Amino acid sequence: MSTKTIGCTMAIRDLQQDDREQMFVLLDRYYLGVTREAFERDLAAKEHVILLRAGTGELVGFSTLSRFHLALPERTVLAVFSGDTIVGAGHRGSFETAHQICRYFFQTIQEFPGDEIYWVLICKGWRTYRVLRLLFEEYAPRAGSADRTSFREVADAFGAARYPGFYRPEGRIIESHAPGQRIRPGSPEAIDRRRSDAEMLFFEHVNPHHERGNELVCIAPIRPDNFTAATRRLAGYSKT
Predict the structure, then answer these.
(1) What is the pLDDT of residues 91-114, one digit of tens each?
(2) Which of 149, 168, 170 is nearest to 215 (CA)?
(3) Under 8 Å between Cβ of 187 and 30
(4) The total number of structural domains that make up the chain
(5) Considering the domain boundaries, does residue 193 fall inside one?
(6) Using an 8 Å Cβ cutoff, are 9 and 48 in contact?
(7) What is the per-residue pLDDT for 2?
(8) Is residue 76 part of a domain?
(9) Most exposed residue of 8, 44, 173, 211, measured as fewest CB within 10 angstroms of its CB?
């Protein structure tokens, strides 16, 4: 099978039923505790979806997205929230998901001029967490970096608004409601103790019960001066 990966971003309302079916199959393949009810509920709460296809047209990955305002103690910010993200075997070396999300960041800046914008990424697995380093100069939580009050305020407002009763601000963790969706043992997102990757070890430290499905709430400012060179390159924009 061809390993070529083609991505597109579209509105949830424009999804075809066949794509919904394939998305559910992919989610169920890589996670335990997946239910159709929870899948449809999560999808209904999102605004856009990134679809990844093989050269044959087969759906091989997806990532859901939504945007909404959060009321903080002294200001309101715009959150870009990434939900379920799956990339099938044979396509994980592609940067197509990153290409689409980077373009989405720049599009959001253009659509909401003047807004203070943050990416909210919730991570069940360490490889998802590691994407932050690729795309942003500054983000949290991060090993060796102080936790900015502004970042914590965004995380706490998001947790209270979207996961009331499950968000734990002291650790910035969304606790799984049993039997919740969780990573399959042996999957690429699972901790591999044969490795000594610093970010993997940090993720395990701050989210010690990730195997139960607990999710770490991560925050990064969506601003041109906080983008890495890779983000600008993937989005097709120059530094200026």
Answers:
(1) 777 889 999 999 999 999 999 999
(2) 168
(3) yes
(4) 1
(5) yes
(6) yes
(7) 46
(8) yes
(9) 44
Range of the domain at 117: 64-235
Cβ atoms 214, 174 nearer than 8 A: yes
Q: Are residues 132 and 220 in contact, defined by beta-carbon separation less than 8 angstroms?
A: yes
CB 24 within 8 A of CB 36: yes
The answer on pLDDT for 50 being more than 80 is yes
**Interacting residues of 136 by C-beta distance below 8 A, sequence separation 6+:** 119, 220, 221, 226, 227, 228, 231
Coil/strand/helix, residue 165: coil
Per residue in 179-226, pLDDT (tens digit) is 678 887 776 666 666 667 788 889 989 999 988 899 999 999 999 999
Sign (positive/negative) of CA torsion 140, 141, 145, 146? positive
Return the pLDDT at 13: 95
Whole-number Cα distances in Å, 186 to 31, 49, 202: 11, 27, 19
24 belongs to a structural domain:
no
DSSP 128-156: HHHHHHHHBSS-BS-TTS---HHHHHHHH
Measured distance CA(93)–CA(84) in Å, rounded: 18
pLDDT bracket for residue 62 (50, 70, 90)? very high
Cα–Cα distance, 55 to 144 (Å, whole number)? 42
Residue 93 phi/psi, 5-degree rounding, is -80, -5
**Residue 139 placed within a domain:** yes
| Strand partners of residue 8 | 51
pLDDT score recorded for residue 163: 95
Give me the mean pLDDT over the 136-149 stretch.
Answer: 91
